[in-house]
Amino acid sequence: MSLRAALLALIEAGGPSSGYDLTKRFEGSLAYVWQASHSQIYPELNRMAADGLLRVEAEGSRGRKTYSITAAGRSELHQWLLETKPEQRVRNEGALRAFLIPLLPREEALGLLREELRHVEARRAELETLCSDVGESSFGRYALERGLRHLVASREWALWAIERLQKSEEARTETARTPTGEL
Amino acid sequence: MSLRAALLALIEAGGPSSGYDLTKRFEGSLAYVWQASHSQIYPELNRMAADGLLRVEAEGSRGRKTYSITAAGRSELHQWLLETKPEQRVRNEGALRAFLIPLLPREEALGLLREELRHVEARRAELETLCSDVGESSFGRYALERGLRHLVASREWALWAIERLQKSEEARTETARTPTGEL
DNA sequence: AGCCGACATGTCAACTTCAACATGTCTGTC
DNA sequence: GACAGACATGTTGAAGTTGACATGTCGGCT
């Protein structure tokens, strides 16, 4: 359902679009939030047209089909945004790795965390560039800001975890006791 | 692959376990990070045993099978943690909604954000309880801390967005101009 | 003895997603 | 005229995920 909502929203915001256009937009700023490749988009557009949410407005050269949103599509989007409660299920590989950190020997854990830190910094720089490029009033501004704040949180967490691991190392060296922790 | 890693890690950390045990643990703190139901876990355990990553250590009453990790399993887990780069693809419905906020009339957007704020606060309280319950040295402590920091980031973002929307409303009332934004 | 709830494991059909395969057009340049 | 690169839309098979269906055991309570 989220793919439908995303497609409806992109058409609502950007006006009539082809599958090709939409694929490009999925590769842009939306990629930080949701992904879909053309092999998912084209069939979905056909299904949505069959369901009356979209209408093929024009067929151009090279087989180009331009879809526009119908009243039913607009109402579906509205309903999804306002009446569907957000899917709470998360599947976050980064967080999963975080969960498993205590399984690693300290040095390896630290390596992993430093790697994560580098990665987060790089991504943050990327987003910050995007942020200043698109300016204050871009369509994606809210999502961008959200992504940025989450990256900062990830960075703070990695720093906290590194410090914590280093402290516990010192403690261990002093007392020669190895606490194990429980699940 | 992540499911395999998670199962290997749970057995490595918690000792020999049955599918039932593992299902329960997936419903616990791990649920904030990764989900899997028994219908996914049981077949995967069988496959992993066939692949030599696990060994059926004992068969108890009620058909209970206790799996323990093998050397191959341990090495697979280690390799996944250290040598597989984290999957960068994200699919975040909350962020998708954030992306779409500019599509809504201000009042509805504000409603959505306030709802989000309530939800984040509730979740945060939940995690904070968990955090103090499990104490400092729990296996899931790092993931918990990460989750908490991300929730705080979500909260700050929602507050920022609400304020921004209200400000732009004032600006609009003053100038009677409606900026639209671009994708 | 009967029943309930927790324990315990499985299958199956439907759906989503992805990478790879497949085809063809238009535009500009060498 | 040949070729490259962007434009444009599809299909297919494999893998991951879910909810529903299905089956049976054990312990404790009435």
TrEMBL record, chains A, B:
<feature type="domain" description="Transcription regulator PadR N-terminal">
    <location>
        <begin position="7"/>
        <end position="78"/>
    </location>
</feature>
<dbReference type="Pfam" id="PF10400">
    <property type="entry name" value="Vir_act_alpha_C"/>
</dbReference>
<dbReference type="InterPro" id="IPR018309">
    <property type="entry name" value="Tscrpt_reg_PadR_C"/>
</dbReference>
<feature type="domain" description="Transcription regulator PadR C-terminal">
    <location>
        <begin position="90"/>
        <end position="165"/>
    </location>
</feature>
<dbReference type="Pfam" id="PF03551">
    <property type="entry name" value="PadR"/>
</dbReference>
<dbReference type="InterPro" id="IPR036390">
    <property type="entry name" value="WH_DNA-bd_sf"/>
</dbReference>
<dbReference type="InterPro" id="IPR036388">
    <property type="entry name" value="WH-like_DNA-bd_sf"/>
</dbReference>
<dbReference type="InterPro" id="IPR005149">
    <property type="entry name" value="Tscrpt_reg_PadR_N"/>
</dbReference>
<protein>
    <recommendedName>
        <fullName>PadR family transcriptional regulator</fullName>
    </recommendedName>
</protein>
